[in-house]
Design brief:
This protein is α+β, with helices and mostly antiparallel strands. The chain contains one helix and three strands, in the order E-H-E-E.
């Protein structure tokens, strides 16, 4: 079916476990411990967000001239959904 479904989960991102020296914006997005990282990760855990990629040949105005026209995985439509429901974004 040339479709890939990927969960967006905390394990595929990096979360701060402290405040680095000279952090951007005065360290506003960091904490002295793992609190800021956990606060950022919580909506991902509770939201159950998934990404779906439907691959096809490269067609239309989004196509790139340097890609082979017969490559079935040269282009993908991306869709998101909450709690695994691709009918509801």
């Amino acid at each position: 079916h040339e479709q890939m479904i990927v969960p967006f989960a905390p394990f595929m991102w990096a979360w701060p476990g402290g405040r680095p020296k000279n952090a951007p914006f005065g360290g506003a997005l960091y904490s002295q411990d793992f609190t800021a990282g956990l606060v950022s990760a919580t909506p991902m855990i509770l939201g159950g967000v998934v990404f779906s990629y439907k691959y096809s040949t490269c067609e239309g105005r989004y196509g790139r001239s340097h890609l082979p026209k017969d490559d079935d995985m040269a282009f993908a439509y991306m869709q998101t959904g909450a709690f695994g429901n691709m009918m509801q974004a």
